[in-house]
Write a structure and sequence with these properties.
Length: about 100
């Protein structure tokens, strides 16, 4: 089944500069929470991306027998951070178009 209609806000958000900046902020937050003594609660904003990475990692292992390992999990988490950033920017743009922006 092919995806036939992609909302314009999502299409525009996939290449927006705001998306790249939001994804970089999410990845930096996960990196800081993982590698520094800061509390893990710092990564709460990236939990959807981490949950998607964990789900995909588990599905790959259970269904296909592919073990991605630690590095593969964090690569999946970076992709999840980008997808989360696309969703956040698309929703923000949609809300801005409905409410109006003073900027």
């Amino acid at each position: 089944m092919a995806l036939r209609y992609v909302p314009p806000a999502v299409r525009a958000a996939t290449t927006a500069r705001r998306t790249v900046l939001a994804a970089a902020a999410l990845v930096a937050t996960v990196w800081l929470a993982r590698l520094t003594p800061l509390p893990d609660a710092l990564s709460v904003v990236a939990w959807p991306a981490l949950a998607a990475a964990f789900l995909l990692d588990t599905a790959l292992y259970n269904e296909l027998g592919v073990a991605v390992g630690d590095a593969g999990f964090w690569a999946l988490a970076v992709v999840g951070c980008y997808v989360e950033a696309v969703a956040v920017v698309a929703v923000a743009d949609w809300i801005r178009s409905r409410v109006g922006s003073p900027f």
